[in-house]
UniProtKB/TrEMBL annotation:
UniProt keyword annotation of Cell membrane present: yes
Residue stretches spanning the membrane: 20-40, 46-67, 98-120, 126-153, 160-188, 194-216
Family that this chain belongs to: Belongs to the CcmB/CycW/HelB family.
GO biological process: cytochrome c biosynthetic process; cytochrome complex assembly
Subcellular location: Cell inner membrane
Entry keyword Repeat: no
UniProt membrane topology term: Multi-pass membrane protein
One example GO MF annotation: heme transmembrane transporter activity
Record's keyword terms, sorted: Cell inner membrane, Cell membrane, Cytochrome c-type biogenesis, Membrane, Transmembrane, Transmembrane helix, Transport
Lineage: Bacteria, Pseudomonadati, Pseudomonadota, Alphaproteobacteria, Rhodospirillales
Biological role stated in the UniProt entry: Required for the export of heme to the periplasm for the biogenesis of c-type cytochromes.
Name the UniProt record assigns to this protein: Heme exporter protein B
Amino acid sequence: MSGLVLIVGRDLRLALRQSADAWLAVLFFVLTGALFPFGIGPEPSLLKLIAPGVIWVVALLAVLLSLERLFLADYEDGSLEQLLLSPLPLELAILGKVLAHWLTTGLPLIAAAPLLAVLFNMDMAGLGVLLLAMLLGTPILSLIGAIGAALTLGARRGGVLIPLLVLPLYIPALIFGVGATDAALAGLSARPDLMLLAALLLVMLVITPLAGAAALRQALE
């Protein structure tokens, strides 16, 4: 566990030195979401209806912006080879890097989500479920994205290939996340969708380290 903490701490320090990348994702999230009321009109009932879907889709796209840098810098400076040779299991190192990615990308998006919720006239009950769903769902986006980033590492136009690989895999998280918030706004129970999001998160916590480690080993051969 000390190795995991070191990986997370190192990536957080690097992210703080390049904080513009994290701010870029948050600014994209807020500005893109803010465009929708201008495009479809200021009707409160319509904005409330589309709010969960818009917020989730924009968050998904904002996460995509930062996926390419998940392993690329370490690959280019040789740090990834050192990780492979270190006593720390590569699977655990991948979990550490994904956690750091979520802390610098997913968590700021969750913090910015209430701003868009107010802009879209969302009820407080829906906002609470939205934040809980994003707390479960944004780590899934980082975990799935890590597999795509590992598979395209070293490939030409890797930044273009990552969205093509991961967008279809994002669909379940998108459906359950939007479904939970829609249920809360309709006065129904959001528990089934939240439970499915939690189950998907647990599954990806197992799959991502194994698949990511295999892809990184292949990229470094």
